[in-house]
């Protein structure tokens, strides 16, 4: 019997949790599907994807370093993908490749539903101007924060990124230099790759308002960013495991039309990372 086939493409990809997450969603929703991790060579993503399409693959996730290339290979892009300039979810039908980006909505769901923090009216600091920051910026703005300040180690990159999204004169989006930020924020989100290298970010302690939320989109580790935030007064510290599960749930919904219950899946993974 033929199962609907899904995959995640990446390099490296062996440690991806996505196959486990989607297997759990499929079992929960009684979906007849498989989901595998495919390690594509850095210069061979397009060929691997073409083969997957020819072999009747129904959909795929795309992770580092192929999200921008996937964006360029799509025949159709959703507004979310266009805004992000990167694609993490592909739907494949009769040879047509549709690209979406669920990273941002995954972050918003994790903060609002799992952590119970409304983003509306909050002062938010978003650190980073790479692919991840670009993906989460529009959905964060969509939650109507009072203020969203974008900052980055290389300030010009934050300014270029912000310019793309300041569409109204009353936009809450502004930029600021990382080391000289003088305000405090209710929610501080680290969307840089500094934590991958276990590197601290040159961030003044004053950015963390008393009882603020500090969120590192990297998962599975107590990062130097979260360490600093805890000492500086943030009362809730979160890694990005919930974002990972929630972006997967959104991909699953796109493919299967069903919303999985994420909490038991997140709790199982969380127990392993404790
Ligand atoms: P990019 O390479 O596109 O961007 C890297 C960003 O990090 C840049 O803004 C860069 O600044 C900044 N940076 C790197 N090192 C440092 C440092 N030592 N101090 C300060 N800033 C630094 O990476 P991505 O945006 O694609 O990915 C970022 C992270 O997000 C990764 O760790 C990835 O695993 C994670 N991620 C997690 C997801 C989840 O579901 N939880 C989903 C997607 C991504 P500069 O411009 O100055 O170089």
CATH class of the largest domain: Alpha Beta
Number of strands: 12
Tell me the domain tally.
Answer: 2
Query: What compounds are bound to the protein?
Result: NADPH dihydro-nicotinamide-adenine-dinucleotide phosphate
Can you give the mean pLDDT? 95
The amount of helix comes to 25-40%
C-alpha Rg (nearest Å)? 19 Å
**What is the name of the CATH architecture of the largest domain?**
3-Layer(aba) Sandwich
Q: Estimate the global geometry from the Cα principal axes.
A: globular
Distance between the termini: 39 Å
CATH topology label of the largest domain: Rossmann fold
In what range is the share of β-strand residues? 15-25%
Distinct helical segment count = 10
Main sheet properties: 6 strands, mixed
Give a nutshell description of this structure:
Helix content is 38%, strand content 23%.
Topology (elements, then pairings):
Layout: E1 4-10, H1 18-28, E2 33-39, H2 45-54, E3 57-62, H3 67-73, E4 76-77, H4 79-84, E5 89-93, E6 96-100, H5 103-114, E7 123-127, H6 131-142, E8 147-151, H7 155-165, E9 173-175, E10 185-190, E11 208-216, H8 224-232, E12 236-238, H9 241-256, H10 263-273
Helix pairs in contact: 1-9, 5-6, 5-9
NADPH dihydro-nicotinamide-adenine-dinucleotide phosphate binds at residues 103, 106, 128-133, 152-154, 157, 191-194, 196, 199, 201, 217-219, 240, 243-244, 247.
